[in-house]
Amino acid sequence: MESHSAGTLLSPSTFSESSKTGSSKSADSTTKDKDQDFTKDNAASPIDLECKIQAERITKILDESINKTKLAICLPGLVKEYRTLNSILSNQHMDDLLLIFDQYDSPLFSTSLLNMGAFEDLKAGDVSLKNRLNPELGLLLYIMNSYPALKPVVEEMIDEGKPETPGLKYLLALENFRGLMVKQMEMTAAEELSMKLKTRKLEASNIKLTKKIEEHTKTLKEESENFEETMKHKAEVIASLEAELATQNRETAVKLQKKVLDSERQMVLATRAHLVKNEMLKEEEAESREVYENLLKVHLLEEKNLRARRLKVETQLLSWLQKYDVEMADKQVELDEFTEKYEEEMRKCKELEDQIAEQDKEYIPLMAEREAEYHEEMTQKMQKFLQEHAARVIQNAWREVLANRAEKKKLKKLLKKMQAAEEKKGGKK
After folding, report:
1. Is residue 104 part of a domain?
2. In the structure, what pLDDT confidence band is assigned to residue 121 with cuts at 50, 70 and 90?
């Protein structure tokens, strides 16, 4: 593993392969540079040709730096995407990556000689970040950089990343630096000279505008002084108007006092007239009281009779209402109970229907597969049972045949013995 990593780190194809997998943004901006053919322009000077070659080389180096920076930023995320790496990388490179991951996560258990110094520091209690870094991470970056298929994954992770992270800020600064470098290298001497001339023109116009601003500032100051003078004049006018207002207030106070005295005199005369009217109204009040008392007696009797009728009607109505309320309360309780039961049953039914629908999606194919397996299994068991049954039947029949043969042999032997015994008896006679 050490010899392989050293060989890959010193591989001369690193620049060419990494330049092929540059960032999409830098590749799009350098398409025109790559499409140019410098051999066609025979009239170009060697210095210009060398400058263009150096510009292309610097652009490729910057593209490679941007690509490797993106890969380094996305490395923690790519480490977690084991399926993606396994589908793109080869088996040998996956084994190398897994070994490097193990060494990075637990340097104490690494077999690499490069971690022996860190091993001593870790045993001494130093768990800083430098003792968790592994030199073979360079090999990890080289392996991932050698696969162009990882480029879309890295670009997607960069697009989804937060711009507040320091890594992405550095990447944006590097891409801006590359754009400025390309723009500066594409600029000719004539363009640079024209830009300087434009700058000088802008400086001259800036001086003219500064003078105009100073002139306008002076005019503004003069106008402000004139405005202050007008404000002072208006303040004097306001003071004179306030004095006139005070004199008018005093005059109105005198007039108001006169009107108050006249109104008091008229009020005394009106009070006397009201006293006379009050005596007359008292007499009318006494007469109306007598009439009122007589009417009140009559009305009280009528009211008593009406109250008795009203009490009777209200009592009867109240009893009917109480009976109605009791019956309706019982019916409402029953209705609420039935409604709750109905809603609960409907909710359970809906949940069961949803569960059955979800289970049907998952279990109908499984049940069909199990049914086929069960059918096949039962068919095999039936065939096996029939074979065993046929074997038993055949064995039983064969046993009976053997038993019959044995009995026949025994009968033959007995017959022979009996015949032999009879022959002996006949010989003796």
Report:
1. yes
2. low
Asked if residue 142 is part of any domain, the answer here is yes
Residue 157 within any structural domain of the chain: yes
CB 88 within 8 A of CB 143: no
Count how many domains the chain has. 1
What is the rounded distance in angstroms from the CA atom of residue 400 to the CA atom of residue 406? 10
pLDDT tens digit sequence for 258-293: 888 888 888 888 888 888 888 888 888 888 888 899
Tell whether 268 is covered by a domain: no
| Separation between Cα atoms, residue 387 and residue 407, nearest integer Å | 30
The model's pTM is: 0.33
For residue 77, the model assigns a pLDDT of: 72
Structure confidence by residue, pLDDT tens digits, 207-258: 999 999 999 998 998 998 899 889 889 988 998 899 888 888 888 888 888 8
In 3D space, the residue among 18, 111, 110 whose CA is nearest the CA of residue 71 turns out to be 18
What does R_g of the chain's alpha carbons equal in angstroms? 59
Q: Backbone phi, then psi, for 36, in 5-degree steps?
A: -75, 145
Cα–Cα distance for residue pair 242/402, rounded to 1 Å: 153
* Structural domain range at position 80: 47-123+130-194
Q: How far apart are CA 297 and CA 293, in angstroms?
A: 6
